[in-house]
Amino acid sequence: MATLDTKGRESAYLARVIEQWGRKTLTIDVGTSNRRCRSEADSSDERVAAPAELLREIAAGAREEVKELLRSGAIDAAVGVAGGKGSAVFGEVVSDLPYGFPKLLVSSARPALLAELALHHDIILYPTLIDLFGINAFTERVLDNAGRAIAAMRYVPARERRKKTVAITAFGVTTPAANRCVARLAEAGVDAVVFPANGAGGRKMEQLVSAGEFDAVIDLTTTELADELVGGTASAGPDRLKAASHRMIPQLIAPGAVDMVNFGPPSSVPAEFKGRQFYSHTPFTTLMRTTASENERIGTLTAERLSQAKAPALVLWPAKGVSDYDRDGGIFRNPEADRAWFDAVRQNLPPSIVARELDCHINDPEFADAAASWIVERLTPGGSSRADV
């Protein structure tokens, strides 16, 4: 896939490399030359908006074409050669391809755009760091590598699942709980897939839950809601904590890492947060402790989204801390701020959903055992269907 009006030579070169390695190619042109936006009109405002509208139309058309090619079995990998606009179009076009379908993007786009694509798709990104202006000694190296790489990739549809599968969210500061949940589920013959609660991970989990890939969710680490409300860098967007309710599958919710909001290096923290409590998790990650008022808002949002659940749902509250940094003697320990989350959840949940308190830390074994046991009971034939059991 390429804008042949600007990347025609690069596209042709890449196709030759792929074919030299024994694969057939089909080129889709997503360029704008000699095309006119169907909705383009005569008013000056609409003429200004037309290029963006045209790109959307091209992406929509190519997206349907690619979906049809997939249905017919004509393609088993996708590669794009693009600058900024072409990269955005590539992201739209491949968005309906299955998770694990090889998607490689060779791009000279700005890093921020590529980072945004990585939030939404499992695209393999190959930033060129040089502009793509024809074929030369440098672009040859890039395209040779990309061609050999994509030629070696082939989509194999997922096998039918033989076991129940549970999605789990985790962060570094809730890893012990996630590990024990995985182990307890395995003992019960249930598979687990763990998603990092870093924005991209939560977003992808919601998408895959919506696609019917999971039988239940242990949403152990809902820290992405803190970033969504407070303005951190790890927000998973407005659809977080919705898919399990829509799919009507069991879900267990915990406040893992809601004691923190994520930013980049210290210099990236907005000035409005000056004077707050921070911790440098790594040179590239700065964590900010949430306040009681923020946790109240996060708890309210959690309850509002969870209230849509029609299948069994349970909130588990660890009274002794929600992250490794939020324990007795820990740098983020603040029981009052934590309690604001739990109080808001209980006040806003419908009576059909129970919020249960456990006198332990989120990373204590008994917390993970309780979470895993509750989910296993609801996945077992004849198991309880009541949330309060």
From TrEMBL:
Domain UPF0261: 2-154, 163-375
Organism: Bradyrhizobium forestalis
Domain of life: Bacteria
Alphabetized NCBIfam families for the sequence: PRK02399.1-2
InterPro entries, per database record: Tobamovirus_resist_UPF0261 (IPR051353), UPF0261 (IPR008322), UPF0261_C (IPR056778), UPF0261_N (IPR044122)
Official protein name in the record: Uncharacterized protein
PANTHER family for this protein: UPF0261 DOMAIN PROTEIN (AFU_ORTHOLOGUE AFUA_1G10120)
